[in-house]
User: What shape does this take?
Amino acid sequence: MTGQDSVQQTPSTPVPPGAGPPRHRPGEHSLFGPMADVAGESGYDEHPARVGFFTDTSVCIGCKACEVACKEWNLVPDDGFDLLGMSYDNTGTLGANSWRHVAFIEQPVRAERRTTASEGTPTPRSGSPAASPVDLGMPSFELPGAGTGAETRQEFRWLMASDVCKHCTHAGCLDVCPTGALFRTEFGTVVVQQDICNGCGYCVSGCPYGVIERREGDGRAWKCTLCYDRLHGGLEPACAKACPTESIQFGELDELRGRAQRRVEQLHEQGVAEARLYGESPEDGVGGQGSIFLLLDEPEVYGLPPDPVVPTRDLPRMWKFAAAAGAAMVGAIVMVFQEGRRR
Amino acid sequence: MSESGQNRHRRGGPGDDGSREQRMVPRATFTSYYGRPVLKPPAWHDNIAYYFFLGGLAAASSGLAAGADLTGRPALRRGGRVGALVALGAGSYFLVRDLGRPERFLHMLRVAKPTSPMSMGTWILAGYGLPMAVAGIEELMPGPLRRTPIGRLVSALARPAGVAAAALSPAVATYTAVLCSMTAVPAWHEGHEELPFIFMASSAASAGGLGMIVAPTSEAGPARRLVAFGAVVELAASRRLETRLGMLGEAYTTGKAEWYLHRASALTASGTVGSVLFGRRSRIAAAISGVLLLTGGVFERLGILQAGRASAADPKYVVQPQRERLEQRRAEPRG
Assistant: This one.
């Protein structure tokens, strides 16, 4: 694989127009794999550096300010006021009317994690006679926040994560769009032109993350634009602006990748062994996400696919099978008439 | 939904008692976010299944009609050409109706995009539709119109147009399978080896069925043979699809998909048996067989649509194969 050169790129080097960073050989990775200059591949001669999000879920407090700021800025309509009855998350999922979605997971702590958390004193396994009383989730009389050390960690944890469109290097939605409504911006992001979209719905199934969706009553497909309008004005996206803990960070993607790497190393040093990055690798199935995440559990726990692959990767193979089937049809029709002639 | 916040689905492993021995059991677990779907359900309604059926029927009918034209079978030619025209007309209606903004249908013609099977399909359909329509209209022209210059031109063009339509018909019959497979919907994407054969074969069986309805038994020999070919390939490819996909095959063999696909197989099989046994002797039996085959074709597409919906709705179809892939890759790192 020649993908190494794109991984080794120094972060935040501005791309001089014309003389781009080492590109892949022509045609080699046009459908999948690493791509050094996403906007350049889409035909922009001069363009700003690729931007994206780094969402550090380890500092997310689940306040949903990102969801609100996004709706306010982008005039996204409400999506009903349903109580989903599963957690503090009543948004449920990304969709046509939710371009940020804060997942909320209440999770029993696993045995191996408990051991690291309480510095080598393993909590007795549940089921053994010495097990601590069953936690009924009752409120305690202790002052909340009185202790902050590892001793305060309890039998369960809360995971909060603000999900968003991944603005993939190889975007399934963009590849399948038959009208050109979806396009790659000069910032390397993926945006729907609402005056072009005819609501064919293909992008909905093209996305391996279940992000883009057709809006009820409107008929067109909608998703995060990474605040394309604000980017033109030199502003950061509304969600990142509103985030009170800097869980959502906006910036040039190369720089964010370095920042994410440093953060995950820092957390590992602090004993948070379960911290991991999601979507940062240009070697992954979508050539690297434009929105990268630091997670504290497997991606599927947050409702994210663990190993997403852009459908386009297999497109040449699909057409080969279709060609074989088409050839069989021609052969069959010729045959059925030739037999007829003999009689 | 779940008392522990996240759903942990275990199959064949011991319960969640914290015992570490569990690691020895082959991993067949998957986790999801409260059992919620990872993917969005396909936006397409049943309309699209009707289009898949009608488009395939039109395509294979054009092939049959061209053959009938060249081998001197006027009734089969006429029925195939008119059938293709009507089928594609109706199919286009369903296709446009399934858009969120039907009035913007022509936006499809803004671009020609090789990575989008829907864009390619639009152009394939346009390229096929024009000659197909010429051939179809020729059959429907009333006598007085035939004698006008335009009528004479259409009549002269009918045969080359019919052959041109037949030449493009395999693309029309199979591109819809690529259209389905070129998605993140697991049952469709992973089924990309068999779906083109199923779509093509089902189209052939349907067109053969239509041929048996519109042509007298003396002319319908090729139609009957096309039915036999289509039915055998369709049933074989469907069986291969269901078994090859492993756990994902359940999307085809359970629920609504199973309901439709089971009936599709039964209808196709009985229509084929009917055409083989009685198709040569009785026009009525041939027509009944034809109707069974056409209905089977509709059910086949509805079943495949349902399988796609089911595989997008249940996170296990998305997470479990990806998780297994990931673990496998971790177990054997690249050199």
Q: What stands out?
A: The radius of gyration of chain B is 23 Å.
